[in-house]
Design goal:
Blueprint: H1 2-43, E1 49-55, E2 57-79, E3 85-90, E4 97-98, E5 103-107, H2 110-145, H3 151-183, E6 186-188, E7 193-195, E8 205-206, E9 215-230, H4 234-243, E10 247-251, E11 258-272, E12 277-284, E13 296-313, E14 318-320, E15 323-329, E16 335-339, E17 341-345, E18 349-354, E19 361-365, E20 376-378
Helix pairs in contact: 2-3
Length: 425
């Protein structure tokens, strides 16, 4: 019985001893591991922080004003008959490009041809009467000289000649009118453009008073775009437009692709008081029919170009309580926080008005561990890692470390920044 009672006690004692031995063996290692992070933290101030950097450079930067416009045909004509009659033929296909003067439809000309023939015959009748009246003038004039006839008869003959001459002029006008009406039986295109859906079929009776017409022609090469801008840009646009024709670009659905380039034609003569905007009209060549009447399109108006200004990648600009700033890499590889003034900014680059000189390097990535005075090392992006979907490295092409290609004048995506002359409120 005693052995059975002591067995559990002995087992408990053995377990306690083993646990103590394990604790004694493990405790120094735990303390050493706990002390290692403190040692690392203590020496972190001497290590350089890896960052990506780019050099500030000089570039010409375009200033754009963005707006949303509606595409409209340059000219729209509803082709209507000018005479009444039976439509005997249609000479165009729906959606066909036609030229000015092309015959689109024909109306039965029988009645109008008869009216022309009648006018021509009446003129011939009056011309014959005129010949006889002129001979009467000669006869009565000779008789009057010989006192064989009265002067009154000679004067009456001359009046008859004048009356017939006037009648012939009236006949000529009637002939011209009849000929014009006959020509209206051929319905022709008044402008160059594209036909729409036909409104009437052959065999129908058409009238000049019909409201629907035969077809609608729209001129889409070139084409116009109507768009609006806030009224506070009116002075800026007027000043630029007075100096030279302003370029307008129609943007694609992605907001970056330029669909077509045109020219500003008209600035409306009044501001819309309900919206506080000014309407503008631009004309585009539309050579490949990229634009279509009634289509909504994003447009941007180039009002100026900032010449040789300091630019940096947009990623380098940070925002703080006191405004924008950048991390400048000094010659001793330490960091200095510097406040800057931004005159224009887009998704690729920022124009630095004050606080930075061309050639100075700024940090574009790796801000999390940066503080004023920290030491940095500029890392080069890997050739195979971190490539963007288009096959380029992040920021490839940017000056100073391969960060951020400076876009040429007219590059897509340039928008007025907050506080710039072309910025939207």
């Amino acid at each position: 019985m005693l052995r059975k009672l002591f067995r559990p006690l002995i087992l408990v004692v053995v377990l306690v001893v083993v646990a103590g031995a394990v604790a004694v063996a493990v405790m120094p290692r735990s303390q050493q591991q706990a002390q290692r992070p403190e040692g690392r933290r203590g020496g972190s101030g001497d290590r350089a922080v890896p960052v990506l950097a780019a050099a500030a450079s000089l570039a010409d930067v375009p200033v754009y004003l963005d707006g949303v416009g509606t595409t409209k045909a340059l000219n729209t004509v509803t082709v209507k008959p000018q005479v009444d009659g039976k439509l005997i033929s249609i000479a165009f296909k729906e959606g066909q490009d036609v030229r000015r003067g092309d015959v689109l439809a024909r109306i039965d000309p029988t009645t109008y041809q008869a009216q022309l023939d009648q006018a021509v015959a009446l003129k011939a009748q009056h011309q014959a009467q005129l010949v006889n009246a002129r001979m009467d003038v000669d006869r009565y004039s000779q008789l009057a000289k010989l006192n064989a006839g009265s002067v009154q008869q000679a004067d009456a003959a001359r009046a008859q000649v004048a009356q017939l001459e006037a009648q012939i002029k009236s006949d000529e006008a009637a002939i011209d009118n009849a000929r014009a009406i006959l020509a209206y039986t051929n319905v022709v295109a008044p402008i160059d453009g594209r036909t729409g859906i036909r409104q009437i079929d052959e065999g129908n009776i058409v009238r000049a008073s019909d409201a629907t017409g035969i077809v609608v022609i729209t001129q889409i090469r070139p084409i116009s775009v109507l768009f609006s801008l806030p009224q506070q840009y009116l002075g800026q646009v007027n000043k630029a437009h007075a100096q030279e024709p302003l370029r307008v670009e129609a943007m694609g659905a992605d907001g970056r692709t330029v669909v077509d380039r045109g020219t500003l034609r008209v600035i409306d003569n009044q501001v819309d008081q309900t919206t506080g905007t000014i309407r503008l009209k631009a004309e585009f060549p539309n050579a490949d029919l990229q634009l279509w009447p009634g289509q909504f399109v994003n447009v941007r108006l180039l009002t100026a170009t900032l010449r040789q200004v300091v630019v940096v990648p947009t990623a380098a600009v940070q925002r703080g309580p006191s405004g924008p700033y950048v991390f400048v890499i000094q010659q001793d590889s330490t960091i200095a926080m510097r406040a800057v003034g931004i005159s224009q900014q887009d998704d690729a680059r920022a124009v630095i008005a004050t606080g930075l000189q061309s050639g100075e390097q700024v940090v574009t990535s790796g801000f999390a561990r940066l503080t004023g005075g920290a030491r940095v090392i500029v890392s080069q992006p890997s050739e195979d890692k971190g490539r963007s979907p288009d096959g380029r490295r992040p920021g490839a092409g940017r000056p100073g470390g391969g960060e951020g290609r400076q876009r040429p004048e007219g590059a897509p995506g340039a928008k007025p920044s907050e506080g710039s002359p072309g910025a939207k409120p």
